[in-house]
Amino acid sequence: LKEVKSGKKIVLKKIVDIGVWEGNEQKMFFKINDVKTDKFGNIYILDSGNHRIQKFDHIGKYISSMGHEGQGPGEFLNPISMIIDNKDNIYVLDKSLQRITKFDKEGNYSNSIQINTQNSHDFIVDNYDNLIVLDRKSTRLNSSHTDISRMPSSA
Q: Would you state the torsion angle of the CA atoms of residues 58, 49, 114, 147, taken in this order, to the nearest 10 degrees?
């Protein structure tokens, strides 16, 4: 319960509970860095400690996993943030590998693009599939103007 300046109260209601201390590894997390939802209400949890994204439906039922530890396609060393575009593609920024990895809406690896800064933490993909990355050290935006939806999968 939180009081707002207008005098009205906001009541928070628990909708779903995801995560366990023991048992089902699909619901165990080590270090959650980001949580997003898609237009269908599916929940995506970026667990950098386990080097993966876990996908759950709107009531918390496990659907799938994306990624694991490594340096190859679809793998992560230090995933720190993710976004979901308007086509439900999932993009993950890996600080250690200095790249953004794309998965399709089914969770299959699509491709990745190298970024040349360790200072990037925030990024977006606009409605024209341009990748825009914030470089925090220089306080500037870097736009790749690369249509990453059409990048060859070997990129």
A: 0
Instruction: List the one residue out of 43, 124, 45 whose CA is nearest residue 79.
Output: 45
Judged on CB neighbours under 10 Å (0-12, 13-18, 19+), 79 is: buried
Determine whether 76 is exposed, middle or buried from the number of CB atoms within 10 Å of its CB (0-12, 13-18, 19+): buried
* CB contact at 8 A, 80 and 65: no
Mean per-residue pLDDT for 66-82?
93
**pLDDT tens for each residue of 2-51:** 455 566 777 877 777 776 667 667 666 778 889 999 999 999 999 998 89
| Rg, Å, the chain Cα set | 17
